[in-house]
Design brief:
The chain is α+β, with helices and mostly antiparallel strands and 700 residues long. It has 20 helices and 20 strands. The strands form 4 sheets. A 7-stranded mixed β-sheet has the order 18-15-14-11-10-9-20. It is globular, with a radius of gyration of 27 Å.
Length: 700
């Protein structure tokens, strides 16, 4: 029914545009006018919120648009913004009428300010920087005001370029240190030759940056505007230009050769949203969600190109390449470390995304447990006999039952979701039958997705491991089994909080033959539905809270939907009718929490993790950074020492015994190495170790 209503809504939009007179001349401006109308009307009619394009929405679009152009307030003056604001309530009319004169004027001034900034940069970088001077720079645009005049702006650029040079200087120092372990860093802390080298590298990077910005074509400018419109509806709605749509289609097919990472534009940076299971970055292991990509060297030994201020499309162009070649990413970690990460380009190794299990035991107990890792909810819709995550999990459960395990750990950490039907069936493996999730449409219609299989494929205690990157379908499974009192949820304070459904609307399909000359028009990804637990509570925004919270590196910062200003909020609806009379009782949970907390308080690993979390919090919140070289290096060195200490302690952890390795049965050498690494990681994983101890308490 919901799909029918969405279809009828689209028919109305199609008829609306087909009733217009044919437009003559297939030029870019008329094409953009057409796209703007279709996008505007589609968001109004189809988006879950039903938000109208009016004066208030227009103000939001204006703020988003300006932020997308100049988040860090490095280009526009305060007077520019005040002049622009005189028309901030007219953007809704501009979009629906297709008269972009005001937008062109903003871009004209933007280009002028870029040229001025480029000239300022060249002037500043001709002179040496004084690294001994103790001054600071505020890097968070939300904590700064626009400059009142050229002198203020010039002073900001001086500090910003000094900051970039300090980062380069520290990078050179680290390279020298890695080549010669006994080097005395203090002896070269203020070396003129290194300062010149660092400044020259910054100069080259800035020249490339301003050239790229100057070469921004009209299509990219229009894409920024359309994405500003979509973003005010919610964080997951977006416009794809024809080129961006092609990239999106390739990424969904998993057939392009890149690194296997989902990227987004965030505050003028390219940030890693998640790592694709089975992809090159996942296999390499160093690139992680929340990393900010600073530079890309398209091959080893080649001068890296800055991607600060780039679009995702521009960054992806640099990252992609031939299979077997290596791309080197310079990234900034959430704790402030700068790392160079070499990744060999390849396609996603599908086998690595499949569910896999191990028979494990804690060396301090005689109990044995099953462990299942599920990186994503996959389903091969093109092949009836193809792999399905729910079937694979069922098969792994049946194998573990033969081993007479005493309990199970289902690992959904970093599982960003996937096939909804498989999530419902996976949850159903652990209950007799009943509702799993409720889905609410834009018009308020609610459908309940159920498990109809009366068989309960695993009846013993279950721990579900989650973190802040467990999202969407994985949250549905965790929430359902929590609400049925069927599993103990262990991990981060809460999961990601993505409880919405998006549909991809190809704009070409919404217009009749008379508009053929304007195609391709791109696509619109729009939020159309929302998930609710069987208790009636939404998984959106708040996510699923853990029954037992374990410290993690991101515990003290916002991750997930809570990070975004334009996320849809949390709410609740009427609960579904379900029976939660399973083994887990409230009094059990209270004791389990107490026991776990005692262990955490005496754990060296968790203590180091909490220290790391504090550094990440400080780094995220303290955006007013010192430009004194010695202070910056001291802080950098402190972080490095902490990481090395944590990694050393982690390697000393050997409380898990794998009972069914069978490595000799694997003939493929590369596959055998991957499995060996996987077992090694299980041995050292403090979260799995604590999960076995929670299961020990449960089965007593």
């Amino acid at each position: 029914m919901k799909l029918k209503r969405l279809f009828y809504t689209l028919i109305v939009i199609v008829l609306l545009f087909n009733s217009c007179s044919a437009i003559s001349g297939a030029d870019t401006e008329k094409k953009n006018k057409l796209i703007s109308k279709v996008v505007g009307y589609s968001l109004e009619k189809v988006h879950y919120t039903g938000k109208k394009l009016n004066d208030e929405t227009s103000k939001e679009i204006f703020n988003e648009f300006i932020k997308n152009l100049d988040y860090n307030k490095r280009y526009f003056y305060k007077s520019d913004i005040e002049n622009f604001k005189s028309k901030e309530e007219e953007l809704d009319d501009i979009l629906l009428n297709g008269n972009f004169k005001f937008i062109y004027k903003i871009f004209e001034i933007y280009q002028k300010r870029l040229d001025e900034a480029s000239a300022i940069t060249k002037e500043i970088l001709r002179k040496d920087f004084d690294f001994k001077k103790d001054e600071k720079i505020q890097l968070d645009g939300d904590k700064r005001e626009y400059s009142n005049n050229k002198e203020e702006l010039k002073d900001y650029w001086r500090k910003y370029l000094k900051y970039r040079t300090v980062v380069r200087y520290l990078d050179i120092l680290e390279q020298k240190k890695s080549k010669k372990e006994d080097i005395d860093i203090k002896s070269i802390m203020y070396e003129e030759e290194i300062e010149q080298e660092a400044r020259e590298k910054v100069k080259k990077a800035m020249n490339r940056f301003f050239k790229r910005m100057k070469d921004m074509d009209d299509n990219r400018k229009f894409e920024i505007l359309m994405n500003s419109v979509a973003a005010v509806y919610d964080v997951h709605s977006s416009y794809f230009s024809p080129h961006a749509q092609k990239n999106f289609d390739l990424s969904m097919s998993g057939k392009f050769e890149g690194i296997g990472a989902v990227l987004t534009e965030s505050e003028g940076n390219i940030k890693v949203v998640r790592i694709v299971p089975g992809g090159p970055a996942w296999k390499q292991g160093e690139l992680e969600a929340e990393d900010v990509i600073l530079k890309v060297a398209s091959k080893k030994g080649k001068e890296p190109v800055s991607v600060i201020g780039s679009s995702v499309t521009q960054a992806v162009k640099l990252i992609r390449g031939k299979k077997g070649t290596t791309v080197v990413l310079m990234v900034r970690k959430p704790d402030g470390r700068i790392m160079e990460i070499p990744i060999e380009r390849n396609v996603v190794i599908l086998k690595e995304t499949y569910a896999k299990s191990a028979l494990i035991k804690n060396i301090n107990s005689d109990k044995k447990y099953g462990y299942i890792e599920l990186p994503k909810f996959y389903h091969d819709f093109n092949d009836k006999e193809g792999r399905k995550s729910s079937e694979d999990v069922k098969n792994e459960l049946l194998q573990l039952k033969k081993e007479n395990v005493d309990g199970l750990i289902l690992d959904l950490r970093n599982n960003s979701g996937g096939a909804l039907g498989d999530a419902v069936k996976t949850a159903g493996l652990f209950i007799k039958e009943g509702p799993i999730v409720q889905v609410r449409s834009k018009d308020g219609e609610i459908s309940i997705l159920r498990d109809y299989d009366p068989n309960m494929y695993f009846k013993k205690p279950v721990v579900i491991l989650v973190n802040k990157f467990s999202a969407s379908a994985s949250e549905i499974v965790a929430a359902a089994l929590k609400d049925y009192n069927r599993a103990v949820i262990v991990g981060s304070e809460h999961t990601f909080g993505k409880g919405t459904v998006q549909n991809l609307m190809k704009l070409d399909n919404m217009l009749s033959f008379q508009y053929k000359k304007y195609k391709p028009l791109g696509a619109l990804k729009v939020t159309t539905e929302k998930f609710y637990r069987i208790t009636g509570k939404s998984t959106q925004y708040k996510g699923v809270s853990s029954d037992i919270i374990l410290p993690d590196m991101y515990s003290k910062i916002k991750i997930g939907e809570k990070m975004y200003d334009n996320s849809l909020g949390w709410d609740e609806i009427k609960p579904a009718d379900f029976n939660n009379n399973y083994f887990l009782k409230k009094k059990n949970l209270v004791q389990l929490k107490k026991n776990s907390l005692r262990r955490i308080d005496t754990s060296k690993q968790f203590k180091e993790i909490e220290k790391h979390a504090e550094i990440i919090r400080e780094n995220r919140e303290n955006t007013n950074l010192s430009l004194n070289l010695e202070k910056r290096y001291s802080r950098y060195d402190e972080i490095q020492d902490l990481i090395e200490k944590y990694e050393k302690i982690n390697l000393e952890t050997r409380e898990i015994e794998i009972l069914n390795k069978n490595l000799d049965s694997i003939k493929n050498k590369e596959e055998k190495e991957r499995k060996k690494d996987w077992y090694e990681n299980l041995n050292n994983d403090v979260y799995i170790i604590e999960s076995t101890k929670i299961l020990n308490d449960l089965v007593k």
